[in-house]
Amino acid sequence: MGKSFVSKGKNIQEAVDVALQYLHTHQDEVDIVILENETRGLLGIGAKPAVVRVTIKDCELAESQPDLLTDPSVLLDLLNKLEQGMELSGSLAESADSEQTAEDAELHGKVWVRDGHIFCKEAPDVYPLVTPAVGMKLYINDELIEKTTVVSENFLIVVDIDEEVKEPEWELLLSEDKMSVKLKIIPGYRKRRRLKDMDPSSHIQLEIEEKTIPAIIETDPIMDKLKELGVVYGIDYVELAAACTSEHPGTFVIAEGSQPRRGKNGWFAPLNSTEIKKGLKERENGSVDYREIQEFPTVVPGQVIGSIEPPVEGVHGTTVTNELVPPPEVYPLHVREGKGISLVDEGKKIIATDAGHPEIVIKGQLAKISIIPKIVINKDVSLETGNVRYAGAVEIHGSVQDGMLVEAKGDVSIRTNMNRAKVTAGNSIIVHKNIISSQVSAGNRNIMNAEMAKLLGEIITQVKFMLGAIDQLSKVSAFKVASFSRTGLGPLIKILCDGKFKTFPPLVGTFIHKINSSAEWLDEEWIKLAEQMKRGFLMIHSAEFKSLEDLRNFIGSAEEVLVSSAGPANDVPCFIKGALVHNSLVYSSGDIHISGQGVYNSKLYAGGTVRIDGYVRGGDIYGEAGVVIGEAGARGGSETKISVGADGTIRIRHVLEDTLIQVGPRMHKFLVGASNVYARLNDKGDLQLH
């Protein structure tokens, strides 16, 4: 056999041309064996050169070539020089001889790996050894090697490493309403494996290096499937490309229809604001005017209040399959004429026929519009004017004097003071100056009624159980309920309360105490009911309940009170605003704001928030949602108690000793003064102070 040369190139032809150049021969004078085909890789990544072995058919043609051409290591060095653009001068034998350096001597008896190929150099006293790695097939001279073996530079060494390929998976999901298409993908990949380069050694353990190359999903099959599903609208090609090249599993919205745009029902368009404006007003110098927090808009006869606008149709949407989606239907606004208004211009405009405050109540597509007239009193409410009872709003430019009464279903505004007077309002009350020894109540829905109703419901349940227990006892021959006809059921009720119904007396006691302490806010029926409970359940010698029928009648009366307390709530927000409160009772189903000096020895109850910018000296302050106070407590004076509901918070800038605070059921008394107090219940229901 003639001389051989192993070479590589970008492709097979280039590798052959390199070999022919070094052998100084032509292609028709050699035998060519392809050892490895070239691979292009993905986007140039993982490309591998072609490797061929070229052998001269007639050895005489290569007599001028040195025997070193049969040495693969020399050929490899020459090939590397060629790839690096180095010029080779002189004969091939001279070039080969020039490479016989001390470095070559160090390779004797060694084996190594370069660019995915195994090379070795023999030595008389050392045999290079190779151990195959797991996951590869090592062939030496076409024989499969599975253990450590000797290699020679004249051996044909081939390594076969399988590549792992996982094809990507995808699925199109068309929504039921055909408004979107989702592409669910599980990415695929190709794991490219090759021999890891290893430095020369007498024995090497072959290793495999691996690189994962993501598989790109072809878009054509997806587009064909979309066409099959009838998807022709709203395709997002950018999102589709992102999905097809994603390296992570996921679901991508690759097509979306256009949602129908909702139209607008007919509506009332006021010419001017008819809402009661609530909020702090800023002065020109930047300070806040706490005296002006509410404005009551009014109209005069003939004034246009607003117009009834027709409905506006919506816009159709489109599914991904190009089907129209109708928008929701729209409806006109129907107007029910209340007092003091008239519809003109074919019902399109509303004008006032009376002076007062426009009240607009809209439920669904039905509007009730009316005028609540407001009475204006340009002087004090006194014996000269008599008590004021009015169905609308009341504005008093003077004061409310001793013993006078003002009742209004709307708002009440008092420009000066209240002194030993009583004012109630369906909505809000503004007293621009002081509230002294007076009773003030705002809000039709009495929060105390709701609180009492909760306790009463529990009492009714307990009495029903008690009635059942007594009824069972009456059927026992040794026990006759009739024997209590003269003494009443008091002794029997006491026996039951000492045994099975131990929680009942405290419950009744709490109810009676709350009724007595809040009698000024409650209707007469609550007070009568509390008195009946006291005589029937707590005074055991009383003959209030003489028979089972009396207990049943009590349950019926209690349930009537309970039902009457559950009337509809007033949706109009209400509040009370004043400058100073002294020795008074103030109730609001909304908020209370005292913006002046503060509160002295008074009781304030708010269904919302109590805010007192100044001090609190003695008394009882309760705000269901929260309390904010500048300073609380009195040195050597009356006890000061600040309370909120379980979900409320207490904030006090400065608190004096002996002040009591309560959040829900948790209480705390300050033994020393404190500043910047913030109290609330934590998630465990414990009182937390900051």
UniProtKB/TrEMBL annotation:
Keywords: Cell projection, Cilium, Flagellum. InterPro entries: FapA, FapA_b_solenoid, FapA_N, Jag_N_dom_sf, KhpB_N. Coiled coil: none annotated. It comes from the Bacteria. SMART domains: Jag_N. The keyword Transcription does not apply. Gene3D superfamilies: probable RNA-binding protein from clostridium symbiosum atcc 14940. The keyword Translocase does not apply. Residues 6-57 form the RNA-binding protein KhpB N-terminal domain. This is Flagellar assembly protein A. The lineage of its organism: Bacteria, Bacillati, Bacillota, Bacilli, Bacillales.
